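Q: Predict the assembly, please.
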Amino acid sequence: MNERTTIQQNKDEPELSLRSDLSSDRGIVEPVSQGKLIWRRFKHHKLGLIGLFVIALITLVVLFADFLSPYDYSRGHKNFSYVPPMLGRIHLFDQDGHFVGPFVYGINQVQVIDPISGRPRPGVYAWENDPQVKCPIHFFPQGEDYRFLGLVKTSTRLFGAREEGRVVPIDQLEGSPCQLFMFGTDKQGYDVYSMTLMGGRVSLSIGPLVILAAFFVGILMGGISGYYGGAVDTLIQRIVEIFMSLPRLALLLALSLILSAYKVEPITRYWGIVGIIALVSWAPLARVIRGQFLALREEEFVTAAKAVGTGDLRVILRHILPNITSYVVVAATLTIPNVIILESILSFLGFGIRFPMVSWGLLVQAANHQSDLQFHPWFLIPAIFIVLTVLAFNFMGDALRDAVDPFTVTGIKQDK
Amino acid sequence: MGNFILRRVLYMIPLLWIVSVLAFLLIWIQPGDFVSSFKLNPNFSKAFIAQLEKFYGLDQPVYVQYALWLKGIVCCTDVIDEKDPSNPVAWKVWSVDGTFPFVHYNPYLGYSFEQRLPASQALFGINGEALAFTLIITVTTLFFSWLIAIPIGIYSATHKYSFADHFFNFFSFLGLSLPNFVLAMLFLMLMVSVLQVGARFGLGVGKLLDNEFLTACWSFGKAAAQCGPWWDLFHYNWPKVVNFLWHLWPPVLIVGTANIASLVRYMRGNLLDVLGEPYVQTARAKGLTERIVVYKHAVRNAINPLISLLGFWIPLTFEGILVVAYVLDLHVVEANFWRAISNEDQPVILAGLLFFGVILLLGNLFSDILLVMVDPKIRYE
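A: Predicted assembly structure:
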């Protein structure tokens, strides 16, 4: 949470939106909930709305990732290595200019001829369209098996290219020249498009999970610290200080070694990574929440609640916490992009998610050679998804901050 | 003031101690130690391994091991005679420079059995070159990002909602959302595929020095085969320096971009806050020119919160350098740390964790002292 921006809020905006309620035809002032007010202010923030829309879209796409992808992401096609993206090779009209619906041509591997010597260059291949083989893109074809949403076993996929005039059995699809690698393939013929969609599941889910864990600890520690004060406060603040004096990335790398040392299942590793990222990110949060608690515990409503004999736990959970909810939500939205970046860095460096699970950071790692960058630039496509998602979260968080608290100009005050 | 600095430094010591304990525990809970891989090596006798284990206290409880490690750093190590005939000969053949692993360097951070070097040399480079590179990149990046970001932030705040403000705002969002490794790869792609600087201009991309300069001296000594001291500016190997500078700007630019993005947002926000204060209005009402109001009254106060964040910035820069060093193959401390992590080279990881912890604490110390010097409102008594 190292960003603090200023988006000036139009001062009379809340009033304007209230006025429409006053002039409702029944002439009664309807109560407007806090949530509605926030949503109204949020709606005026165009970039925030775009961010929300992009996040919703990407979430939907990765949720139905296996249905939307024509291939099983964890299976290579050894005959099709380094196929460039075919997204641009989808045609709608045939050679005579008639509309025939989307189709691609079959692809053929050809040797690259050296322009100088005129001889084929050894080991260098390119992929060419075969105009003889036409492959219409079918909708809802049968493909490799998967579990829809992890529940229902099915083999129907949204789309896939199939040879025209010839029915190829599913287990022989790999030999057909009709393929649809939207974002290309890597060396072993893994479909980058399918991997990107599936990788989104890990990259997107890790953010909220880390937030959940880190906020649980952060609110607990910060709450206790701020509410009780005194010796407890001093102790917890020292612990927070120690956690903030630890080098974040170096610590993450060292912690991931423990995960590697015990050879664990991929899913256990995933939870381990959620755990270690949460471990390095709860401290700043606890500190900020403590500040909120410190301010609120002096308020009259807390004194009143205590006076009627309400227990500490109830005061914390029912009286103070609801008052900082909006604040916590904003902090969460602004922390998620940092977590996504942290996870992608960890996976990119080779110490995060590992195959057979994929994440965007892991996929970008394949591009980390000058020759790959030069000859297979499509390996960078997952990076576009990282940037897009992080950008969307940043825009949304910024808009949300202004919407929740229109009076502070700078938003989150992070005390150092 | 001196009292404050003294207290602040003293306060660092317990923190540093706890960081070192945590780092040591982190390594200790990992299964296996650096000697365990030797047990399978037929070149090493049982007696030698026992000797090693005794020296590092591996046969003793964890707090003794920790105490031995700490003793090596803050005080001294037991000197073992190199010429002692009971030491196995195989060792000297095996070690790279013929040095004996027990030979003490102070501070002695342990011995990297992976690289057959003392851990400090494995981390900081054999002659400390990696450390120098890291510090140069860090300092240059910090200066660069502040020099670019502060004027942009001031301009954005004073020209609120202008086209340029929206432009900068969008770019700072973009800069925040571009992870360093993506930026580094885009840069590589631009240099290698688009501009083809290698083929067209014969310029190397990545690394901090081209191969032909790797072993060259920084400065020439009196004899032909001898290198001079690094501070001997009169006999510098200027082609090597130029080559280094050419390789220096990409990491500075890449790591700096993310820094600039958030710095601009902070600066703009702070300055807008300050510009709304009544005293700024008073200054304007007194008839001061806008330039004096902004630069002498507002900016002066808006910059203080940024200084308090300086300590926070240094570790972030280190993180950025680690990632960029991995992509661009830079020979810096962070890259050595990464290599130690992938080799599970425990003494070097330990040394690295301690080093980064020290840097973080020093950064905080530095920014606290600077803040007290700059901001008269801060009471330090």
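The beta strands of chain B are 111-112, 117-118. Residues 79 and 104 of chain B are 7 Å apart (CA to CA).
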